[in-house]
Amino acid sequence: MVLEIPDVLSPAQLAQARALLDSAEWVDGRVTAGHQSSQVKDNLQIPEHHPAARQLGELILGALGANPLFLTGALPKHVFPPLFNRYAGGHSFGTHVDNAIRQIPGTPHRIRTDLSCTLFFSEPDEYDGGELVIEDTYGTKRVKLPAGHLVLYPATSLHHVTPVTRGARTCSFFWIQSMIRDGTQRALLFDLDFAIQSVAGSVPQHPGVVSLTGVYHNLLRQWAEL
Ligand code: NI
To answer: Ligand 1 centroid vs 116 CA: distance in angstroms?
Structure first.
């Protein structure tokens, strides 16, 4: 499931983020790449411990924690501290799969990357190219979203970023370990939750709403890892 989540950041948060990103230090993006992906990765990143990365990371995590669509789509257990990249002057990232396990920098903790996330800071008309191309179960999906919007996609998928031939594309990227490891189960829970909200919105007193809510929670109880 590829899920686009609009307006994760408010216009004020976005302006603050863009100012911080423009003042930050940018280094070769291969610093966080694995062996295969380092051969196809060509972009810039902010170093993980840079104060701007930490400050913006906290802003993003706070916004995600208050976003119902993110919470129901990802059912997050752990979220990796957000990283930041920039593509300009022909930069691209060839086809790769994200590392399955990632150590959280400066800690002994590791997370399993069930979902990958890209949050856009640049508007689509600020650059040419720079599409995130995801090979999903049901075909290839090309993603280029307005600033402040985010895409959530299975970390199991092959994906690439097409060359940026004009302007600059600045994004945050990070991973999520979900309470629901299996993508099919996660998608079922998402669809069920969506259907319950829809029925509850039209016929709030319908007894089926309580029954279906029970089914949702009992499936979550069956499948969740804490
Ligand atoms: Ni990737």
So the answer is: 7
Q: How far is the CA of 159 from the centre of ligand 1 (A)?
A: 6
Beta bridge pairs of residue 5: 150
| Cα 196 to ligand 1 centre (Å) | 33
Q: Identify the band that residue 179 occupies on the pLDDT scale cut at 50, 70 and 90.
A: very high
CATH code (residue 189): 4.10.860
| Alpha-carbon span 179 to 72, nearest angstrom | 11
- Boundaries of domain holding 198: 183-223
Does one domain contain both 215 and 160?
no
Please tell me the distance between residue 197's alpha carbon and the centre of ligand 1 in angstroms. 33
Q: Is the pLDDT of residue 118 over 90?
A: yes
